[in-house]
Specification:
The protein is of the alpha/beta class and 356 residues long. The protein has two domains: 9-183, Rossmann fold (3-Layer(aba) Sandwich); 188-354, 2-Layer Sandwich (Double Stranded RNA Binding Domain), CATH 3.30.160.150. The protein contains eleven helices and eleven strands. The strands form two sheets. Strands 6, 7, 8, 9, 10 and 11 form a six-stranded mixed β-sheet that branches. Strands 2-1-3-4-5 form a five-stranded mixed β-sheet, with helices on both faces. Strand 4 and strand 5 (148-156) form a beta hairpin. The radius of gyration is 23 Å and the shape is globular. The termini are far apart.
């Protein structure tokens, strides 16, 4: 940092925007390379480029947020394993669906923005000044998994701005690379049977707890009469050796509790469950249409599940997914999206439950 030429942060910010379009980009390693999918295939032939969308950062001064996003986008564009969603495309999506950037702070809305943009990862954040210190915080969000990782860079308001933003951009790039498996869900739709068989083999012979699954499911605004989420979760659990309790006549009561649980977040586990059930998987799932392309319908699904300790009610594991599917039938596409979400959650959560 060049401490010998103090400048207020708002002056430095204006300079940084000019820097982004000029030859001074050479001061920031990695900002000169174009976003090149062909080069990505050469450098990392076995891994498809990961799609990333960078939203303008929240800031009292709008220009600060735009510049922070610009530097991060430039840095990520230089990584051959990443594919950036173009700024114009992202702005068009936000405008078309009447979504605000403030909505992206909510996990469900962030997932929706990412899904609409075709991104697996969203990067957003804030920039603000405290005690003559500029703090810029970035949140890297997995659209499918809901996982969030936070990075921060700071410097004096008298420092050059670009090095501060460049440090943060590099942290974000490294986070995405190191945590890719946590940000992006495994491709269950193509390898479901193989992954299920592999997981079952790993747990073979283990003494596994008894569980019950209660997932409230809604399709197109109406409760599902044939819930795909519960069925898929129960299938994975049973195949992996868990004893899955079937509520039978108590099914309606358990479903009602699952819906109410997500409204209050403090409901006790119902007494209708037998005492030998040690883990309760409670969740909610919903689907909605995504559009029509000729004779093909697309739909998306979102699902969240919490594993609760039967005795204490404590949350011992959490997973969530946002998925998409296509089919000749819109409702079947929606079912497929929910099924894929449930399979992916089961694949992530079962090892955690088996370790209890």
């Amino acid at each position: 940092m060049r401490m010998n030429r103090p400048r207020p942060v708002w002056v430095a910010l204006g300079t940084a925007m000019a820097v982004l379009s000029g030859a001074a980009l050479a001061e920031s390693p990695g900002l000169r390379e174009p976003n090149n999918a062909a080069r990505a295939a050469t450098v990392a032939p076995h891994t498809a480029p990961l799609s990333v969308a960078v939203l303008p950062f929240d800031s009292p001064d709008r220009s600060i947020g735009l510049q922070a996003a610009g530097v991060i986008s430039a840095r990520l564009s230089a990584d051959p394993t990443l594919q950036l969603v173009e700024r114009e495309q992202l702005n068009a999506i936000l405008e078309e669906h009447r979504l605000s950037l403030s909505a992206a702070t909510q996990p469900a809305e962030a997932a929706r923005i990412g899904w609409l943009a075709g991104a697996k990862v969203l990067v957003m954040g804030r920039a603000y000044v405290i005690d003559e210190q500029l703090l810029v915080t970035a949140r890297t969000v997995g659209v499918e998994t809901g996982r969030v990782f936070v990075s921060q860079a700071r410097g004096s308001t008298k420092d050059e701005l670009l090095p501060i933003l460049d440090r943060l951009a590099e942290q974000v790039r490294q986070d995405i690379g190191a945590r890719r498996s946590q940000l992006v869900a495994p491709d269950i739709s193509t390898d479901r049977e193989k992954l299920l068989q592999s997981l079952a083999e790993r747990l073979k012979g283990r003494n596994l707890p008894k569980v019950v699954v209660a997932v409230a499911e809604i399709h197109y605004g109406a409760p599902a009469v044939d819930p795909a989420a519960e069925t898929e979760m129960m299938l994975w659990l049973a195949k992996c050796g868990f004893t899955v309790f079937d509520p039978g006549k108590a099914e309606r009561g358990v479903q009602g509790w699952a819906r109410d649980y997500y409204r209050s977040k403090s409901l006790p586990i119902p007494r209708i469950l037998p005492e030998d059930v040690s883990i309760v998987l409670v969740g909610e799932a919903f689907s909605e249409g995504g559009g029509r392309f000729g004779d093909i319908f697309s739909a998306k699904g979102r699902m969240e599940v919490r594993a609760l300790d039967r005795k204490t009610g404590a949350v011992i594991a959490v997973a969530r997914r946002t998925t998409a599917a296509v089919d000749l039938s819109e409702r079947i596409a929606a079912k497929k999206a929910i099924q894929d979400a449930a399979s992916s959650i089961a694949y992530e959560m079962i090892p955690e439950l088996a370790a209890r």
